[in-house]
């Protein structure tokens, strides 16, 4: 059995966050203390019903040892197949997916036909093929599978020593498929995560609170359902929220963890915690995985205080918490959470024409920018800048940090780019929203040409990973 020596640096291979289960809220609060209670129990993200089913197979000659040609005579066929199997099995277990892995090698037209029949009958949610040889027949069978598989999303893993440039050209135009050619065996976990994410996005329901109608809108390609409900749903839920252990725990968490508190009072922070509980209750009652509300109307009518802290909290828990009922930003957040286990910052873009940079600002920003299970960035409790009401979290971004800019523009296309954080901006003396930063944007000579609005800023250089996912899921990528 080959030893696993390489530790992947790919952000898609992060471990899933673990949550406490099975204890009542009050019992857990007493056992753990309110501060720790607020940061763990209340953060359990909603689960997706059903199970993602992935099938896998190995493309290689039916021999015990290779002779001449890549990957070479030193390549331990049995040992590598066992290592690939172990890696995929562990990834499937972590993700909560099932894996049906066919161990007999696919090496000719007959074995390929048998496997295609098996896939057609099982109708899995995804297929993960591992090409274990440079042998021409192996790639011929890979390409034949891609041609004949139908629409099932397919990832092909080609470890170093099993492909040249010519072998990889054919698959570039295959729909709903991606070939990962790399020396990193742990990339198999990334492949599993991408396939699972395609399935998760199709099962996702996002609660969009806006207007006066109840309506479901399924999205093409990505498959997510937008579940529209009236503002009254939130108003009714908020009226029922009392000052409970959960409310006090969350208020206590933000009071103690904040670097500074500027405008908000103790009552403001308690009210912000109640907004969070109301968001969770509406989302859970409607069986949704995320929440986005057009809050400016109710705030303008003084029916509620701005839910900025509530939406920030949801983002830090891996739950969509999007402003202004912007469903493109909401599905962008959901995808970011699933692929990278970190929040994105939905912001209003303001080009800086003096520095030729981009400034982005909003009053809702998650603080766990490195990851849901990582320490939070420093934050200050402020009011909502446009109303001077409620609580907003001003998150201080790490200067010099590489970031990715991304947003869906409809379910069939995303805009994508990268940049770097230059500085945080305070309000006042500047105008705008509470979390505010200035960044560079790579490959954009004039910052006024940056596409989109409410794009997400995300910690990390994630451009290649997003592109791989988009090729797998049939989404067009346009440079920002």
What radius of gyration results from the CA coordinates? Answer: 24 Å
The portion of residues forming beta strands comes to 15-25%
- Uncertain runs are 3-32, 37-41
Question: In the CATH hierarchy, what is the architecture of the largest domain at level 2?
Answer: Alpha-Beta Barrel
CATH class of the largest domain: Alpha Beta
The helix content is: 25-40%
Principal-axis shape: elongated
Give the overall pLDDT as a whole number: 91
**Major sheet summary line:** 8 strands, mixed
Total count of domains: 2
Q: How far apart, in Å, are the first and last alpha carbons?
A: 45 Å
Total E-strand runs: 21
What is the fold-level CATH name, i.e. the topology of the largest domain? L-fucose Isomerase, Chain A, domain 3
The helix tally amounts to: 14
Summarize the structure in words.
The relative contact order is 0.11. It is elongated and about 75 Å long. It has 2 domains: 53-200, Dehydroquinase, class II (Rossmann fold, 3-Layer(aba) Sandwich); 204-479, L-fucose Isomerase, Chain A, domain 3 (Alpha-Beta Barrel), CATH 3.20.14. Strands 12, 13, 14, 17, 18, 19, 20 and 21 form an 8-stranded mixed β-sheet that branches. A 5-stranded parallel β-sheet has the order 2-1-3-4-5, with helices on both faces. A 5-stranded mixed β-sheet has the order 7-8-6-10-11, with helices on both faces. The model is unreliable at 3-32 and 37-41 (pLDDT under 50). The two termini are 45 Å apart. The chain contains 14 helices and 21 strands. Helix content is 34%, strand content 25%. It is an alpha/beta fold.
